Amino acid sequence: MIQNENILITGLTGYVGSNLIKVLLEDDSTKNNNVYALVREKSSHSEFIKELIEKYKNFNLIIGDFVDLQSSVTSQSKCIEFLKSIITNNQIKVIIHLASMMDFYPRNSIDYSNIHKTNVIGTENLLKASCTSTILNSSPKMNSVNNNNNNINNNNINNINNINNNNNNNNNNNNNNNNNNNNNNNNNNNNNSSLIRRFIYCSTTETMGGKKPITGIPLSELDDPYSHPSYYYGETKRLAEDHVRRYEKKYGLDTIILRPTGIFGKDDQFSIFELIQSVSYGILFFIPSFANGNIMYTHIDDFIQSIMLSIHKEKLATDDTDGLPHTYIISPDKGLTYKEAIIFLNEKLNRMKPRLKLPASICFPAIRVLGLLMYSFSSRKPFLFKAATLSAMEEDRIYSNERAKRELGFKPQYTFKQGLNVTIEEYLENERIGYYSVSPLFIFTTIVLLIIKFLIL
């Protein structure tokens, strides 16, 4: 990477962004670079951001957004103008697009629309702003994105579904076209009209989904044409990937797409934290009889490593041209079966080793009731205690990182089990979870039974 290049990052206040920013500002390879973070107004006054502004002279805050959720899909021009002004006025050369809306179980049409706009339209807005050929006539002021009071167009949902259907039908053709044109996607592309040096897009292995029947064989980028997202979130990220590749092909935009598995580690708030917390409470004292699949999550430190490598990577003619161009699965070397993961977590947290196997006829009704109770009194987005999540235990969700190792120089520090071990130690040290000598669920159940017995007598 050329020294003193300016970097723009989206998703600063998310889990990955909040872990990446200090590395960007302190690592020897990037500490001399100016880093600009695009942050929404409502998130701009946090203590975390105040600390960054006070501590780092090369940190720059820009208040605004990369997508206008209140406008229609086709009315994003002011947002694109705003983004282009950020890029040109600050001479941005690298964009790291982390921001997305991750919701595996949208509740209504507005949720679906917002997920699509954020993940698909927002990504295309940034791509358009990065290319000279898409410059719009008027010049915006450097302030937050103009939000109007237009109602969300419910017809967008139908459009979204049509796009997704067309996307699934054309995946094979798109991949073949990508392969055939891969050699034209380097910096020497004759159609190069990009304003920046590199666009790094954070995608997800949810673009590929799980695999059934279970084989224990990791999915790779070569399996992409034969895989399908399991959730709408994955569908939108797949559509966004298509936009990234299209802008590379059409405008010579230098892009890298990273596909991490689920990410976890210190201060994580999502699925792994929810899983560990549940085991700590004594809720997962059993093994679902159908939990035969394999799973892997990536430790946050390993994913940050992949982003830093992507900033500096020199694209070579010897890069793999058989799969999707410069698309890399980021994962540990080794995963676990669901059974192994549940047993390990119980033992690590001083719970009894689960020996009881419960059939689907018991597990699914129980998880529905438990999920209703858990999510009715919490602002947390539902995931773990959902029947669809439970049924995913019948699938393999393990992936190959061989291409990332070969082309990026990626070297994961943790297997999934090692990452879990380190993360639990951090949770215990920071008292995010309790180390109970007796299961709270066992205590609660005992009290309830004693009360019932007392009332009967």
Automatic annotation (TrEMBL):
Thioester reductase (TE) domain: residues covered: 9-298
> InterPro entries recorded for this chain?
FAR_NAD-bd, Lipid_A_modif_metabolic_enz, NAD(P)-bd_dom_sf
Q: Is Zinc set as a keyword in this record?
A: no
Q: Where is the composition biased (Low complexity)?
A: 146-190
Spell out the residue ranges making up region: Disordered.
138-190
Provide this UniProt record's keywords sorted from A to Z: Membrane, Transmembrane, Transmembrane helix
- Name the record gives this protein: Thioester reductase (TE) domain-containing protein
What is the protein's species of origin?
A: Dictyostelium discoideum
